[in-house]
Design goal:
- The protein has one domain: Calycin beta-barrel core domain (Lipocalin), CATH 2.40.128.
- It has 3 helices and 11 strands; from the N terminus they run ααββββββββββαβ.
- It has an 8-stranded antiparallel barrel with strand order 1-2-3-4-5-8-9-10. The chain has a two-stranded antiparallel ribbon with strand order 6-7.
- Strand 3 and strand 4 form a beta hairpin.
- It is globular and about 45 Å long.
- It starts with a helix and ends with a strand.
- 21% of the residues are buried.
Length: 180
Amino acid sequence: MKTPLVVAFLSLFTVVVFAEGPVRKERPTPVAHVDLSRYQGLWYEIAKIPNRFQDHCKANATAHYTLRDNGKMDVINRCLDQNGEYDEASGIAKGVDSQSNAELKVSFLSFLGFSLFWGDYWIIELHPNYNYVVVGTPDREYGWILSRSSGLSNVTRDLIDAKLRSQGYDPNDFENTKHQ
Protein backbone atom coordinates (compact mmCIF):
# COMPACT_ATOMS: atom_id res chain seq x y z
CA MET A 1 0.00 0.00 0.00
CA LYS A 2 1.24 3.50 -0.85
CA THR A 3 -0.66 5.37 1.87
CA PRO A 4 2.21 5.37 4.46
CA LEU A 5 4.57 6.79 1.84
CA VAL A 6 2.12 9.58 0.96
CA VAL A 7 1.55 10.35 4.64
CA ALA A 8 5.31 10.41 5.27
CA PHE A 9 5.86 12.74 2.30
CA LEU A 10 3.09 15.11 3.38
CA SER A 11 4.40 15.13 6.95
CA LEU A 12 7.93 15.95 5.76
CA PHE A 13 6.56 18.62 3.39
CA THR A 14 4.59 20.21 6.25
CA VAL A 15 7.63 20.25 8.55
CA VAL A 16 9.90 21.75 5.88
CA VAL A 17 7.43 24.41 4.71
CA PHE A 18 6.24 25.53 8.12
CA ALA A 19 9.66 25.30 9.80
CA GLU A 20 10.82 27.98 7.39
CA GLY A 21 8.10 30.35 8.62
CA PRO A 22 5.59 32.23 6.51
CA VAL A 23 6.08 32.18 2.77
CA ARG A 24 7.64 35.44 1.66
CA LYS A 25 6.01 37.43 -1.10
CA GLU A 26 8.08 38.03 -4.20
CA ARG A 27 8.22 41.78 -3.63
CA PRO A 28 6.72 44.27 -1.21
CA THR A 29 3.65 46.13 -2.44
CA PRO A 30 3.95 49.92 -2.70
CA VAL A 31 1.06 52.10 -1.54
CA ALA A 32 -1.55 53.12 -4.12
CA HIS A 33 -0.62 56.82 -4.27
CA VAL A 34 1.79 59.38 -2.81
CA ASP A 35 1.22 63.12 -3.10
CA LEU A 36 4.81 64.31 -3.42
CA SER A 37 3.90 67.86 -2.42
CA ARG A 38 2.64 66.47 0.92
CA TYR A 39 5.57 64.06 1.16
CA GLN A 40 8.21 66.79 0.95
CA GLY A 41 9.64 68.28 4.09
CA LEU A 42 11.52 66.93 7.10
CA TRP A 43 11.29 63.29 8.21
CA TYR A 44 12.98 61.79 11.28
CA GLU A 45 14.44 58.31 10.95
CA ILE A 46 12.79 56.15 13.61
CA ALA A 47 14.43 52.86 12.64
CA LYS A 48 16.34 51.24 9.80
CA ILE A 49 17.75 47.97 8.63
CA PRO A 50 21.47 48.53 9.30
CA ASN A 51 23.43 49.32 6.15
CA ARG A 52 27.00 50.17 5.26
CA PHE A 53 26.33 53.74 4.11
CA GLN A 54 24.87 54.68 7.51
CA ASP A 55 27.40 52.83 9.70
CA HIS A 56 28.91 56.13 10.83
CA CYS A 57 25.53 57.53 11.95
CA LYS A 58 25.06 57.36 15.70
CA ALA A 59 22.01 59.60 16.26
CA ASN A 60 19.64 62.27 14.94
CA ALA A 61 19.19 60.86 11.43
CA THR A 62 16.81 62.85 9.25
CA ALA A 63 15.80 63.09 5.61
CA HIS A 64 14.59 66.30 3.99
CA TYR A 65 12.80 66.20 0.64
CA THR A 66 12.17 69.23 -1.57
CA LEU A 67 9.97 68.90 -4.64
CA ARG A 68 11.31 70.44 -7.85
CA ASP A 69 9.17 71.91 -10.62
CA ASN A 70 10.08 68.93 -12.86
CA GLY A 71 8.63 66.41 -10.37
CA LYS A 72 11.99 65.19 -9.05
CA MET A 73 12.94 65.71 -5.42
CA ASP A 74 16.11 66.97 -3.81
CA VAL A 75 17.11 64.78 -0.88
CA ILE A 76 19.32 65.73 2.05
CA ASN A 77 20.07 62.95 4.54
CA ARG A 78 21.71 64.10 7.75
CA CYS A 79 22.97 62.38 10.89
CA LEU A 80 25.19 62.89 13.88
CA ASP A 81 28.36 60.81 13.47
CA GLN A 82 30.56 59.09 16.06
CA ASN A 83 32.68 62.28 16.40
CA GLY A 84 29.65 64.36 17.37
CA GLU A 85 29.57 66.17 14.02
CA TYR A 86 26.76 66.32 11.51
CA ASP A 87 27.26 64.55 8.21
CA GLU A 88 25.11 65.27 5.15
CA ALA A 89 24.51 63.41 1.93
CA SER A 90 22.73 65.20 -0.92
CA GLY A 91 20.90 63.33 -3.62
CA ILE A 92 17.96 63.27 -5.94
CA ALA A 93 14.82 61.15 -6.16
CA LYS A 94 12.73 60.54 -9.25
CA GLY A 95 9.51 58.69 -9.79
CA VAL A 96 9.42 55.36 -11.60
CA ASP A 97 5.64 55.18 -11.71
CA SER A 98 4.12 58.63 -12.25
CA GLN A 99 0.62 57.30 -11.54
CA SER A 100 1.31 56.35 -7.93
CA ASN A 101 4.61 58.11 -7.10
CA ALA A 102 5.16 55.25 -4.65
CA GLU A 103 8.10 53.69 -6.50
CA LEU A 104 11.05 56.05 -6.59
CA LYS A 105 14.70 55.79 -7.51
CA VAL A 106 17.32 57.72 -5.52
CA SER A 107 20.91 58.60 -6.28
CA PHE A 108 23.50 60.14 -4.00
CA LEU A 109 26.34 60.10 -6.51
CA SER A 110 26.65 62.45 -9.45
CA PHE A 111 29.41 63.20 -11.90
CA LEU A 112 29.36 66.25 -14.17
CA GLY A 113 25.68 66.75 -13.39
CA PHE A 114 24.67 63.16 -14.15
CA SER A 115 23.28 61.07 -11.31
CA LEU A 116 24.80 57.62 -11.09
CA PHE A 117 23.87 54.39 -9.31
CA TRP A 118 20.15 54.70 -8.75
CA GLY A 119 18.65 52.69 -5.89
CA ASP A 120 15.07 51.62 -5.25
CA TYR A 121 12.99 53.57 -2.73
CA TRP A 122 9.51 52.12 -2.42
CA ILE A 123 6.90 53.62 -0.15
CA ILE A 124 5.18 50.54 1.28
CA GLU A 125 3.19 52.18 4.09
CA LEU A 126 2.08 55.78 4.46
CA HIS A 127 -0.09 57.28 7.17
CA PRO A 128 -3.15 59.03 5.65
CA ASN A 129 -2.01 62.36 7.15
CA TYR A 130 1.63 61.75 6.17
CA ASN A 131 2.65 61.41 9.84
CA TYR A 132 4.85 58.36 9.18
CA VAL A 133 6.10 56.33 6.27
CA VAL A 134 7.75 52.96 5.74
CA VAL A 135 10.23 52.74 2.89
CA GLY A 136 11.68 49.54 1.50
CA THR A 137 13.30 47.92 -1.48
CA PRO A 138 12.07 45.05 -3.68
CA ASP A 139 14.70 42.68 -2.25
CA ARG A 140 14.01 43.78 1.36
CA GLU A 141 17.73 44.43 1.88
CA TYR A 142 16.98 47.99 2.97
CA GLY A 143 14.19 49.53 5.00
CA TRP A 144 13.41 52.66 6.95
CA ILE A 145 10.67 53.90 9.23
CA LEU A 146 10.35 57.68 9.08
CA SER A 147 8.13 60.06 11.03
CA ARG A 148 7.34 63.77 11.09
CA SER A 149 8.37 63.72 14.77
CA SER A 150 11.39 62.15 16.44
CA GLY A 151 9.33 59.45 18.13
CA LEU A 152 6.31 57.20 17.67
CA SER A 153 3.84 55.83 20.19
CA ASN A 154 4.01 52.11 21.00
CA VAL A 155 0.58 51.65 19.39
CA THR A 156 1.76 53.25 16.13
CA ARG A 157 4.97 51.22 16.15
CA ASP A 158 2.96 48.01 16.66
CA LEU A 159 0.82 48.93 13.63
CA ILE A 160 3.94 49.57 11.57
CA ASP A 161 5.52 46.29 12.69
CA ALA A 162 2.37 44.44 11.64
CA LYS A 163 2.56 46.12 8.23
CA LEU A 164 6.24 45.17 7.94
CA ARG A 165 5.35 41.52 8.63
CA SER A 166 2.58 41.62 6.03
CA GLN A 167 5.11 42.95 3.51
CA GLY A 168 7.57 40.12 4.21
CA TYR A 169 9.92 42.07 6.49
CA ASP A 170 11.00 41.01 9.97
CA PRO A 171 10.54 44.02 12.30
CA ASN A 172 13.40 42.66 14.43
CA ASP A 173 15.77 43.45 11.55
CA PHE A 174 15.15 47.16 12.18
CA GLU A 175 17.31 48.96 14.70
CA ASN A 176 15.94 52.04 16.43
CA THR A 177 17.54 55.40 15.74
CA LYS A 178 18.54 57.54 18.71
CA HIS A 179 17.46 61.17 18.81
CA GLN A 180 18.95 63.65 21.26
